[in-house]
Amino acid sequence: MPKNTQGIAVIGAGSWGTALALVLADNGHDVRIWGHKQEQIDEINERHTNHKYLPGLKLPAGIKGYTSLREVMNGITDLVLAVPTKAIREVLGKIAPVAENPFTIVHVSKGIEPDTLLRISEMIEEELPSSLLAGVVVLSGPSHAEEVSLRHPTTVTVSSRNMETAERIQDLFINQNFRVYTNPDIVGVEIGGALKNIIALAAGITDGLGYGDNAKAALITRGLAEISRLGTAMGANPLTFSGLAGIGDLIVTCTSVHSRNWRAGNLLGKGQKLDEVLENMGMVVEGVRTTKAAYQLAKKYNVDMPITSALYHVLFNGENVKESVDRLMNRTKTAEMEDLVNILGARLGD
Ligand SMILES: NC(=O)C1=CN([C@@H]2O[C@H](COP(=O)(O)OP(=O)(O)OC[C@H]3O[C@@H](n4cnc5c(N)ncnc54)[C@H](OP(=O)(O)O)[C@@H]3O)[C@@H](O)[C@H]2O)C=CC1
Ligand SMILES: O=C(CO)COP(=O)(O)O
């Protein structure tokens, strides 16, 4: 596999940034990881661990930690952006003045910005001048950092408006444990990755309420239906939602104990308050902000998203979780596929 001779910068030293730094180091790349906490970067450089985010993991000495964005960006042509969606604009705003040459961004975050309703690649294009941005790629799929860091078999997909760039990034990451596919549908890949977190929160809630596997299978299936409806209305290829960034990620996030979104939902289902849950999680729970964004997008595109809407009212209007499930179950009867077929028909008719 071709080596990036300049080294690759990973921006964000949380769970996912650290696990992906390991994949890149396993592939022989020199990796610079940037974090904003001196103590944590000292730990990475001196003890080769990142205890808070991936306890027990020993990092190769080839992964070097930095707190200076100027130093980490020096000569860099490929950058992996691994901070929560909420922090992306702030971090890019600090990178722009210190970057000296154009670079490709591989973003690995799973969110949509509330109010602007932008996908992450669109936020990146807004924040960085085109003279600095050589390309934007999204890497997404069913991939919990905890298992990637154990080098357990994992599959993801990369997408970009420029497929040559996507294929080059595929080559940087792919190895025997980390299989990387390409998909030209950047809208679908970003929407699938972001919206599955909403359904995982809901699946955590039903598990917390003590409902069983039927309820979870219903959420996964009907969750996929509403993700596909919105994504298709936004221009995605509906087939993307039957792939890794769609059903693949939805399954892993709704069923894995590693999922922060599922865990947060589970605590909500058991009766904890949202503030309390988020305070104790210690890591990002992207689905909360994304629920707000998807609720707004559903209105904008006039798409029915009953699970997202129910969760929105639980999270932001204090509605009771059990009553919300009852209301979802007692909506007017409907057909299973008709809405998606109509959305697709309207698009093809345009
Ligand atoms: N974890 C996973 O398995 C996967 C995560 N993702 C996605 O990757 C993205 C990052 O998630 P993940 O790594 O898991 O999150 P974590 O909560 O594990 O880590 C987030 C990291 O970002 C840092 N950070 C937060 N805000 C800022 C800021 N304003 N400036 C600089 N650094 C900041 C945090 O620092 P601090 O320690 O100070 O809080 C921390 O190092 C998310 O969008 C997530 O959905 C995607 C696939 C898998
Ligand atoms: O996206 C993920 C796995 O693919 C991580 O999900 P959580 O953020 O819910 O842990």
From TrEMBL:
GO cellular component, one term: cytosol
Principal EC category: oxidoreductase
Reactions catalysed, as given in the entry: sn-glycerol 3-phosphate + NAD(+) = dihydroxyacetone phosphate + NADH + H(+); sn-glycerol 3-phosphate + NADP(+) = dihydroxyacetone phosphate + NADPH + H(+)
Any one Gene Ontology molecular-function term assigned to this protein's record: glycerol-3-phosphate dehydrogenase (NADP+) activity
Cited PROSITE patterns: NAD_G3PDH
Localisation: Cytoplasm
Active site: 196 (proton acceptor)
Binding site for sn-glycerol 3-phosphate: 110, 141, 143, 196, 249, 259-261
Positions of transmembrane segments: none
Residues binding substrate: 110, 260-261
Residue stretches making up the Glycerol-3-phosphate dehydrogenase NAD-dependent C-terminal domain: 185-325
PANTHER family xrefs: GLYCEROL-3-PHOSPHATE DEHYDROGENASE, GLYCEROL-3-PHOSPHATE DEHYDROGENASE [NAD(+)] 2, CHLOROPLASTIC
Protein's recorded name: Glycerol-3-phosphate dehydrogenase [NAD(P)+]
Organism: Peribacillus glennii
